[in-house]
From TrEMBL:
Cross-referenced NCBIfam families: PRK07589.1
Domain of life where this protein originates: Bacteria
Protein name, per record: Ornithine cyclodeaminase
InterPro entries assigned: NAD(P)-bd_dom_sf (IPR036291), ODC_Mu_crystall (IPR003462), ODC_N (IPR023401)
SUPFAM superfamilies linked to this entry: NAD(P)-binding Rossmann-fold domains (SSF51735)
The species this protein was found in: Psychrobacter proteolyticus
Length: 358
């Protein structure tokens, strides 16, 4: 007899935005990110176990809609996500995301969830994980360029994993920086709102760029980047969308990516030739390649977000809700007595009115 991970008659756990917010609030944002970093490291160490592919993307003038599938042979995960920077002018989210985790043996869904909040958490955890291995020793100041929806998560992730004490904010929209500063006012971090990009990066050992414009932009210029810093570039994540001056990439001592075939298309390295040398992060984690060889090394993470990170986050959420209550069960899978007689479900409803009439 098959051992279903979720008994079909019980329904599929569904995590709404409200439920996710309560779960994360109760557990703690920093604790979630800390646990996710541990889980991400374990999954990157078994990189070869994953069936990997670049995400499927449907591009339009103002944005992109993507499907991000991955499997480790036991479970399958897929995220639906969009990126429409213009949405903020419509009072809509730039990113709307939902995800599903399934059992490979039966094909049955295990979990269906919102993934706006969960993606922000896993992105912050990925950034913090890279900084753990790539930032200079003793780094305590983060320059956060782009203060939109992900900024607070990024700051708290660097605090939890790296131990930063100061965050220097810069955004072309001053209201975004004020929003971030207000949200982080009780975080224990020193928050400095900067008027210029140059002011923000001054003295920062970690520079995170997280901007949303769908264009080839030079958010971070080469002439203001000093030796020894770690650049966590996570905003350039589709063709035609970049953040870094290409000269920064060309003089970097190490450029690190998640899944090279995808980053060649979507990352900041799309500005450079196809043979420009990069290192996939799993190799650094395994000790095959050092992240840096000296304190003066300039190290860049060209992060676009890869499906295995969503897989990790979904499994983390599955395990987290197993200890909690309050989520909804969805009746989404047909489960008639005879598996071959799917029509019986429809037929039972079609006969019901006649039987009621007598």
């Amino acid at each position: 007899m098959l051992n279903f991970i979720v008994p079909p008659k019980q329904g599929i756990p569904f995590i709404s935005v409200q439920t996710m917010a309560k779960i994360i609030s109760d557990y703690g944002v920093e604790q979630c990110i800390t646990d996710l970093v541990d889980a991400l490291e374990q999954d990157f160490l078994r990189w070869e176990k994953f069936e990997k592919s670049s995400r499927f993307a449907s591009h339009s003038k103002d944005g992109v809609i993507e499907l991000m599938p991955v499997s480790d042979g036991n479970m399958f995960a897929c995220k639906y996500v969009n990126g429409h920077p213009i949405n903020t002018k419509r009072d809509l989210q730039t990113v709307a995301a939902m995800g599903i985790l399934s059992d490979v043996e039966t094909g049955y869904p295990i979990l269906l969830t919102e993934m706006c909040i969960l993606t922000a958490l896993r992105t912050a955890a990925t950034s913090a994980m890279l900084a753990k291995y790539c930032a200079p020793k003793g780094a305590d100041t983060l320059a956060l360029i782009g203060n939109g929806a992900q900024s607070e998560f990024q700051a708290l992730g660097m605090k939890a994993i790296i131990g930063i004490s100061e965050v220097r904010l810069y955004d072309v929209d001053p209201a975004a920086s004020k929003k971030t500063a207000d949200n982080l006012s009780n975080s224990g971090l020193k928050i400095v709102i900067c008027n210029t990009l140059e002011e923000a990066v001054l003295g920062a050992e970690i520079i995170t760029t997280c901007t949303a414009d769908k264009r080839n932009a030079t958010i971070l210029r080469d002439n203001i980047v000093t030796e020894g810093v770690f650049i966590n570039a996570i905003g350039g994540d589709c063709p035609g969308k970049t953040e870094l001056d290409k000269n920064i990439l060309m003089r970097a001592d190490r450029v690190i990516v998640e899944f090279e075939p995808q980053t060649r298309i979507e990352g900041d390295i799309q500005q450079l030739s196809s043979d420009f040398p990069v290192v996939e992060f799993h190799r650094i984690l395994k000790g095959e390649v050092p992240a840096r060889t000296s304190a003066n090394d300039l190290v860049v993470f060209d992060g676009v977000g890869f499906a295995s990170e969503d897989f990790t986050a979904l499994v983390f959420l599955r395990d987290l809700i197993s200890k909690q209550k309050g989520y909804e069960l969805l009746d989404m899978i047909a489960q008639q007595p005879d598996p071959k007689n799917l029509y019986s479900i429809v037929n039972s409803y079609s006969r019901a009115p006649a039987a009621a009439m007598g």
